[in-house]
Amino acid sequence: MNISKYSPGDAAHCLAAVMRASPCEIILIDAATLRLVDANAAACANLQYDLPHLQSMTLQQVAPQLSRAQLDAALAGATGDIGELDTLQRRSDGSRYRLTLRLTHSLRDSGALIVAVGVRPAEAAQADATTPDRSQPRWNAIAAHTPELAYQCIWHADGSAFFPYLSDGCKPLLGLDAVQLQHAPGLFLELVLANDRSAYLAAMQQSAATLSPLNWEGRIWIAGWQDVKWINLRSAPHALPDGAVQWDGIMSNVTCSRQEQQDVWQSHARLAELKDYLENGKEQERTRIAREIHDDLGGNLTAIKMALAMLSQVLPPENLQLQQRAAYVDALVDRSIDAMHRISLDLRPSVLDFGIVAALEWQIKEFETQTGVHCTLKSNQADIELGLDQATALFRIFQEALTNIAKHAKASRVAVRLARMRHHVCLKITDNGLGMVAADRAKPKSFGIRGMMERAKALGGSVTLNPAGGGGTVVSIRIASGAPTTIEHDVHADEIE
């Protein structure tokens, strides 16, 4: 049916007559926009739409697998001004049927048109009659009762997209009517925030390339509501015969759960800040108490001892009872001075003033004396400069690690390795004890390990626990050391064996 040789007026009358009389589907398409301009009774009946509804749609809404590039190629390769294109037509209930479209150009007063005459091959009509597509109506029934937005999305090889189906959840979620989005599929990408758009496209491309399920979460901006929403897309892709990919899935509003998640993260961050503040306050209070004990109580005990010594010199030598009492009080003062030094060291070892290496050496000697466990220390530098907070935190973590070894490991040897790296200080503590299983770290009352990790985290560092070769446990502490050193390359703790 070549009517392009007629004048516009004659062509219009001729075409109208043909459309009324023809049993075949005939659709008139605006050549520029692919909007459906007119359709005959056969097309309306087969597609299950009335004419006004069809006139609000585009060609891709009734033939989702058909792209503009395919249409242009068919028209460009037309034989005798008529091109042919095989496609699948989509009815209003979602079922599909095969159709061959015979395409030609025509003119109306409104502009250039494409006339599409649909011819159904006999074998296709027979197959459709005997094996109806039941999956789409089932999908529609399920989607209609889903509170989220059920959708179908098709990506063609030329990059164009189309939404064959959008449930009633479209407007509440996206702020757009389903018809709006189907007429202009690009509106969806415009809703996605610019910062999340590349991630969305990458997820779609990955899903299309591998036909793996799509699970993407991101933000959209709805200008009409001046609102940002978090949405989640979960859908399953499948390849279409023409090379396009179709996803069937659900869009959900996850703003509330995202907000709750962010509230939890913020709560954790605030708790971490509070814990760090309390730890710093506790260390400062320990330092203050240690100094007061040393300066005030220590001075008083020293004065008492000196006065007692002077008093002992004037006691009558023959009064053994007074001499014994004076000796007892002198010994009691000595024990009090020892207790004062021990308490002060526990509160804040003054040896920290001589550097972290000296402090670790002192703690190792104390550990050996108290437990009898042989302990060695190696460092790649004789002195490592650290800030007061960093040195105190590293020392406290070290103390807790040794306490855990003494309580639980039943070890006979402990090797301590300290390494100054370019940007970090690494402390590794290895014992040959019973070792630690993963369940030990998750015990509700394993506050020691948690405390070690929190102290390191507060300084931008980390604590890791791993099994040692041949049994035992390796505790690795890594904290930032401030300004880079002049070391030319990073030194790993293993290099100081």
Task: Describe the model.
By secondary structure, the protein is an alpha+beta fold. The protein folds into four domains: 8-130, PAS domain (Beta-Lactamase), CATH 3.30.450.20; 135-253, 2-Layer Sandwich (Beta-Lactamase); 259-347; 355-496, Heat Shock Protein 90, CATH 3.30.565. The chain is 47% helix and 24% strand. It contains 17 helices and 15 strands. The chain has helices spanning 8-21, 41-47, 51-54, 59-62, 68-76, 122-130, 135-144, 170-174, 178-183, 186-191, 194-210, 255-314, 320-347, 356-371, 388-409, 438-441, 447-458, and strands spanning 25-30, 36-39, 83-90, 96-108, 111-119, 149-155, 161-166, 214-222, 227-239, 245-253, 374-379, 413-420, 424-431, 462-467, 473-480. The strands form three sheets. Strands 2-1-5-4-3 form a five-stranded antiparallel beta sheet, sandwiched between helices. The protein has a five-stranded antiparallel beta sheet with strand order 7-6-10-9-8, sandwiched between helices. Helix 12 (255-314) runs antiparallel to helix 13, helix 14 runs parallel beside helix 15 and helix 15 (388-409) runs antiparallel to helix 17 (447-458). The longest helix is centred in the middle third of the chain and has 60 residues, at 255-314. The model is unreliable at 1-6, 123-134 and 484-497 (pLDDT under 50).
